[in-house]
Amino acid sequence: MLRLLSFVLFIVTWWIASLLIGEAKLPAPPIVLSAMMTEARSGALFLNLGATLARVALAFTLAMALGSAIGYAMGRVRLVDRIGDPWLILLLNLPALVVIVLAYIWAGLTEVAAIAAIAINKLPTAVVTLREGARALDPALDEMATAFAFPRGRLYRHVILPQLAPYIAAAARSGLSLVWKIVLVAELLGRPNGVGFEIGVAFQLFDIPLLLAYSLSFAAVVLVIETLLVQPFETRLSRWRLRAA
Membrane-spanning regions, if any (predicted)? Predict the structure, then answer.
């Protein structure tokens, strides 16, 4: 109910702002909705949303897999941490735009370059989070697993992963929010489709209704995914933790 009221308040505020500023700069909701429906009827809206979501899924999966493995290794092995830490600091502070531009220069304006650039920008946040999780692992549980001669697979599944679960959830949440932003920049600079590409076209044509139509459609998809997938996933991973009294 509160979310519905919040949405209604957003629409009302937007409509009032449109009346005050003028529809030339801020189109009213019906105008944007009309542009959105036009794109949906032509199929362009769903095609571009699908392209963007595919890039997000691939880049996010790649970055989480590599980031989790690297972060765990850095948190458990001091030598790996000392070798990898300078590179981690570099990636954390390197602007996303630089990574995207270099990827396009080195690999061309290809899908591989776009996905790699997005993944590289998300990678260091996953590494940092999982490194802290690996450092926080309880050594007493390691000793118990050794004493009971746990097989490696059982050790990871029943001892290590449950302890890392909150860190994995945190890395996924923060990383996904970052990927949502970076994918649009990558599409704007070097892809022939996607929400970012369409926003760039709308900017060049100064077509504000089209720009808002794609922006709000993308925001709606992000909100649905966060509500139906990310939040339940985070809750499930953290269900074993003791609740505060």
Answer: 46-75, 87-106, 211-233
